[in-house]
Input
Amino acid sequence: MFSVQTLSTSKDEYLTRPDLDARFDDETLAEIKKRRLPNPQVQVYVSGGLSSTAVEAAAQIADFIQQMLEQQTSGISLKL
Output
């Protein structure tokens, strides 16, 4: 599991330039490409956006992934 940041740097910029929140810089894109698995069966993506509640819920994703790892069956590989 890893975190990335969009080109949006503040709440004001997020609201006035929503296009920046949908884009990454070249270094971030390279990191995403380096870490991704080819043709995953399931991919988990968590976004906080402007909601502090969403960010708190995103913090619980580690528990969810840990349960997935414990329940993993043959033929399915998981990468954090």
Observations:
- The chain has a mean pLDDT of 78.
- The helical segments are 11-16, 26-35, 52-59, 61-71.
- The first helix runs from residue 11 to 16.
